[in-house]
Amino acid sequence: HRLDGVPVVPAAVAMELLAEFVQAGWPEHPLVELRELRVLQGITLPADAPRTVRLWARATPSAEPNPLEVTAEIRLPEGDRPCYRATLVLGGLTTKAASGAPAALQNGQTVSASDAYGLHCFHGPAFQLLQGEARVDSAGVDGELIASHPTDWVQGGAKGSSWLFDPGVVDTLLQSVILWARLERDSYPLPNRFGRLVRHGALPANQRLRFTSRVADRTDSLLEVDFLVLDTEGRVQLELQRVETSHSPALKRLAPARRD
User: Fold this and answer.
1) Sign of the CA dihedral running 260, 257, 109, 207
2) How far apart are CA 145 and CA 128, in angstroms?
3) Is the overall model pTM greater than 0.85, yes or no?
């Protein structure tokens, strides 16, 4: 993302980097869950130059090897400062199935994908994964998106590669919070914390998916939102709980220039 002209690593990409790092460290245990991801400070890329980060992970001592909990961080080498920290859970894809989707929203207003990116969201082409029209009302957002593919993002990525937690899907869920904040509060959000992200199934690249976001708690400056991502059969594939975002009218400057 480019915020105020400065390139930054998106939180959803940092999440996937932590997940892939931990999975590579413990390949015998499938990664199923990520908990309490905290955005301690962003990672900027001044002058569009590459930047080196340090990855760190430690398994939590436990009498039970399955599931295995691992604490991981992304750090900046200068000063060894942590940027992102999370706990990741490995072992067995038999996670408790999420409940079904909430009732569809009936009120509010609809926003087309073209208006979402033309008027509200600052995201570039690789992140423009909203499809059709999203419905926004005071309770949350319903919409559709399309899963991304690593080869669209990573130079030299193999055609058969796949994400653990598709950062395009996760970021699109955050985009729905932008739509809600713009239309319901005339404000603009940035994420602070991700409570829990659970994989319930695969997210094949380029698959069309349905999502729901529901406001769980709110104050004047903070919002907590729960999300579900469902396949075309209505099965929950990804569950994202208690995403905390901070809101400020001053951040409205991040929105694209309004069209006539």
Assistant:
1) positive
2) 9
3) yes
Tokens of 209: 């998916």
Q: Which of 184, 241, 190, 233 is nearest to 212 (CA)?
A: 241
Q: Which residues pair with 199 in a beta bridge?
A: 238
Are residues 1 and 123 in contact, defined by beta-carbon separation less than 8 angstroms? yes
Q: Helical H runs in 64-166? A: 113-115
Residues 6+ apart with CB under 8 A from 71: 57, 58, 60, 85, 86, 87, 88
Q: pLDDT, tens digit, for every residue of 100-120?
A: 789 999 999 999 999 999 999
Name residue, tokens 């992970």.
Answer: 57
**34 with 60: CB under 8 angstroms?**
no
Helix/strand/coil for 181: helix
In three-state secondary structure terms, 180 is helix
The number of beta carbons lying within 10 Å of the beta carbon of residue 51 is 13
